[in-house]
Amino acid sequence: MTVGMQPDGNLPSAVSTVDGADPLAKLIDSARGWHGVQLGVLGFIGFCGVLKMGAEAPGPDWLQWLATGGSVGAFATALWSIVMVGKVAWPTGDPAAPADPAEMSGQLRSGIRTTIVSVALMAFAGLSAWWPTEQAPSVEVSLGNGGKACGQVAEGAPAGAMWLNTAAGETLEVHLTTVANVRPVASC
Question: Which of 31-45, 82-96, 120-134 has the least mean pLDDT?
Answer without folding.
Answer: 120-134
